[in-house]
Write a structure and sequence with these properties.
- The complex is a heterodimer.
- Chain A is an alpha/beta fold.
- Helix content of chain A is 37%, strand content 20%.
- Chain A contains 16 helices and 17 strands.
- In chain A, the strands form 3 sheets. A 9-stranded mixed β-sheet of chain A has the order 2-3-1-4-5-6-9-10-11, with helices on both faces.
- In chain A, strand 9 and strand 10 (257-263) form a beta hairpin.
- Mean pLDDT of chain A is 85; it is low at 199-204 and 447-464.
- Chain B is an alpha/beta fold.
- Chain B has a single domain (3-256), classed as 3-Layer(aba) Sandwich (Rossmann fold).
- Chain B has 7 helices and 12 strands.
- Chain B has helices spanning 24-35, 67-79, 81-89, 99-103, 208-211, 213-228, 240-256; strands spanning 7-13, 40-46, 59-62, 93-97, 107-109, 115-117, 124-141, 155-169, 177-181, 191-192, 194-196, 199-202.
- In chain B, helix 1 (24-35) crosses helix 6 (213-228).
- The longest helix of chain B is centred in the last third of the chain and has 17 residues, at 240-256.
- Classes of the chains: A alpha/beta, B alpha/beta.
- The A-B interface holds A 139, 142-143, 146-149, 205-208, 210, 215-217, 363-370, 389, 391-392, 394-396, 398-399 and B 16-17, 19-25, 28-29, 32, 47-48, 66-69, 71-72, 132, 134-136, 160, 162, 205-207, 210-211, 241-242, 244-245, 248.
- The complex binds zinc ion.
- Zinc ion (ZN) binds at residues 211, 213-214, 216, 233, 235-236, 238 of chain A.
Chain lengths: 464, 279
């Protein structure tokens, strides 16, 4: 049955490539699992170094890309799932594609799998990962996922189903630390040493997360952002666990950051070519995981220092002679970090925001009021708002004291306007929710979406 | 009108623990709309276990939170119950959204069957249900009209509901509004929220006030009346941006639900009558 399943997956994948469907392919996995229900378990069991699962609200894709690139540079053969294929079927597709159809053998040492938080409970028991890395937890599309407690209980049951896994947890996030309580296997922590970083982080809203031990609100003595930082509980005395993997002596720049990565009694300096404190976290998580899998620290530092971001997180389009950077924004913590890193470069610029409220974006758009626009000086930055909820963005920015905001509901037209209002020699940045980003890409990057209409029709036909 | 000398004091209840759905936007809306009219606002932030002087507050604001936060908040809130209840009896205003609405009711029963007492401002019991109610909402609000000679036009309000709690109103409670589209207190699509004098409890996030500026102004007038004795109209503002967002949401509700029986432009420009202050 495995043979039939793999042949079917291969054929489905080949026909979808022919139709230009590209990323986000889940159909081969659906088909293969229907033919051989034990597929994920049987294939992942063959991985010599075991699968690695990366989950959490923000940073999954970038962390997986960093980790995968680092391990590949170190000579490991990998199975990877593409961004957007992080549900069960996408993972099955990735594993099926890596196996020889006739031998049924997986030609890889490990699998670096980004897994959607909500899918962990169904995927992790089958994968029995060697490492489960949780990046952070914050509110994300509450209409779809429910609140953090719902996500937390799914992750807890996932972790409980893999007692042999090593957990790699963000020590700075009390919600993540809570997930590791009671785990039978080893638990390792990564965290930031933010000494000297105070002036780099603008004052921002502090949220408190419940204490992992007693559930009362925690206090933060050093805030990284949101509810992340050196937390402690004044009610029961619990505090941030000591980190096994640390990023310290952090210097944030407009186009990148550098930091000292300390692990297993050794230290190396990492020069990360992408900006933002959130990317320091991503690099730290990836570096920690690579170190756990046995890669030497200098090799890790070299790989992280030459990192190229994943497609779709941040990509450039050329519109009316201007480079427009497209950035995915889907929740307050992620949007906040993206804005902060865009503004770290103080050169002239224009900013766009495109907010759709389709199911894939999240139908609840209230999260834009949790983005601390008030903390950023945008007085000299032309702003364009777009999407089906452009009016909500215009309202949000009015109450944040921003003036002269342009409204254009069509996201692709908004990008053209953004290019027009960009000051000479300046940069243009468009933060967009998922479907707004697709709309922009389909119109302005036709080479990538040439067969998308045909592909969509066919995918529809196949699934029903 | 000596507007520059007027001031308001807002109690923002549990700003970190109870701000799951952008409810901070309600506080931002009140602050801005006061600021634009020269009304000074100071905000007292109330946190679990920390002292806060509520005696001089005109407006209470609280949002929604996680179940686990709610238990600690409920305990703390009940401890401050006497002072809050007496201010609301005097005509102080309140906007209590989701978890805030639930905890200002008589009690809240969790999915695990534990019942935590609330403030009892609203004659309402809430219990957690397995199924979440999620989606856009439009209601016609009927605000309390003490001594009003003529029935006033209902106020159309738009928001987003996201709750697993079901709130059942008792005999002594009056609903905040009638559902036009959405599920409401118990999910049956009839009534939404509750009103006690100038205190409003509701499941409407969105956040509610920025997109419903009339309601924001109603609360400001009520809060000023609580402080200065009699309701006075506020200076008009240019609400074009607010109303465009409002109308977008109205159109979305209309598109998502069966035709609305009466589509008269409801209530804009009609002054809202307030519960009189006893001060
Ligand atoms: Zn504690």
């Amino acid at each position: 049955m495995l043979f039939a399943a793999l042949i079917a997956a291969r054929t489905a994948a080949a026909s979808s490539r022919l139709l230009g469907r590209g990323s986000g392919t889940t159909y081969p996995g659906v088909l293969a699992e229907r033919i051989h229900p034990g597929l994920v378990r049987d294939l992942s069991r063959q991985l010599r170094s075991g699968p690695v699962v990366v989950t959490g609200t923000n940073g999954k894709t970038t962390t997986c890309k960093m980790l995968g690139d680092t391990l590949a540079a170190g000579g490991m053969r990998l199975v990877r799932n593409e961004s957007g294929s992080n549900l069960r079927q996408g993972i099955a597709s990735a594993l099926a594609a890596s196996a020889g159809a006739f031998t049924g053998r997986v030609r890889a040492d490990t699998a670096i799998l980004e897994v959607d938080e909500a899918s962990t409970a169904s995927v992790v028991p089958l994968l029995q990962p060697r490492v489960i890395c949780v990046t952070n937890l914050s509110r994300d599309q509450l209409d779809r996922y429910g609140d953090l407690e719902t996500i937390g209980s799914r992750l807890t049951s996932a972790i409980r189903s893999a007692p042999g896994a090593t957990l790699l947890m963000n020590a700075d996030d009390p919600l993540v630390v809570a997930l590791g309580k009671g785990h039978d296997g080893p638990v390792a922590y990564f965290g930031l040493d933010t000494t000297g970083l105070t002036d780099a982080a603008p004052t921002r809203r502090i949220n408190t997360a419940p204490c992992p031990d007693c559930g009362r609100p925690t206090a933060l003595s050093a805030v990284v952002y949101g509810h992340l930082g050196a937390w402690r509980c004044d009610s029961c005395g619990a505090r941030r666990p000591a980190a096994d993997f640390v990023a310290g002596e952090i210097r944030l720049g407009a186009h990148g950051s550098d930091f000292t990565f300390t692990a297993l009694g050794q230290s190396v300096r990492v020069t990360l070519p992408i900006a933002g404190l959130h990317n320091v976290y991503n690099a730290l998580a990836a570096g920690s995981c690579a170190a756990m899998l046995g890669l030497p620290l200098p090799a890790i530092a070299a790989s992280l220092s030459s990192f190229e971001p994943a497609f779709g997180r941040s990509e450039a389009l050329v519109v009316e002679g201007h480079d427009v950077e497209l950035l995915l924004a889907k929740n307050p913590a992620g949007a906040e970090q993206t804005i902060t890193s865009v503004l770290a470069d103080t050169g002239p610029k224009a900013l766009g925001f495109a907010l759709n409220d389709n199911i894939a974006d999240g139908t609840d758009v209230s999260w834009i009021w949790d983005v601390d626009f008030e903390a950023h000086d945008l007085s000299s930055v032309p702003i364009v708002v777009s999407g089906s909820r452009a009016r909500d963005l215009a309202l949000r920015l009015k109450y944040a004291g921003k003036r002269g905001v342009r409204v254009c509901e069509d996201p692709a037209d908004a990008v053209r306007i953004l290019a027009e209002v960009t000051p000479a020699g300046g940069s243009a940045h468009m933060l967009a929710t998922y479907t707004a980003m697709l709309a922009i890409r389909n119109v302005l990057a036709p080479a990538q979406g040439r067969f998308s209409a045909l592909g969509k029709g066919l995918r529809h036909g196949l699934q029903h | 009108m000596a507007s520059s000398t007027r001031r308001l004091r807002i109690a923002h209840l549990y700003p970190e623990a109870m701000d799951l759905y952008g409810d901070l936007g309600n506080v931002i809306a009140i602050k801005r709309r006061c600021e634009w009219r020269g009304v000074d606002v100071d905000v007292v932030e109330v946190r679990v276990g920390q002292p806060a002087d509520l005696a001089d507050c005109d407006l209470f604001m609280m949002g929604g939170g996680q179940d686990s936060a709610q238990a600690h908040v409920a305990e703390d809130l009940v401890r401050r119950g006497a002072v809050i209840r007496s201010l609301l009896d005097e005509g102080a205003a309140a906007l209590l959204v989701c978890g805030g609405f639930q905890l200002f009711g008589l009690d809240y029963t969790t999915a695990a069957g534990e019942t935590m007492p609330g403030l009892g401002v609203f004659d309402a019991h809430t219990y957690a249900d397995a199924k979440r109610i999620v989606g856009n909402v439009m209601i016609e609000a009927t605000l309390q009209r003490w001594g009003a000679a003529h029935p006033q036009a209902p106020l159309t309000l738009v928001g987003f509901e996201n709750h697993s709690g079901r709130t059942v109103l008792g005999e002594g409670a009056r609903p905040f509004g009638r559902i036009v589209c959405g599920a409401g207190n118990t999910g049956d699509g009839t009534v939404e929220g509750a009103v006690y004098r100038n205190a409003i409890g509701t499941y409407l996030h969105g956040p509610l006030l920025p997109k419903n500026p009339r309601l924001a102004d109603h609360l400001i007038v009520a809060a000023l009346a609580h402080r200065y004795g009699s309701p006075e109209p506020l200076a008009e503002l240019d609400d074009a941006v607010e109303m465009r967002a409002h109308h977008t949401a109205v159109a979305q509700c209309a598109a998502a639900s069966p035709p609305i029986p009466e589509t008269k432009s409801s209530g804009w420009g009609h002054p809202l009558t307030l519960a009189p202050s006893r001060r």
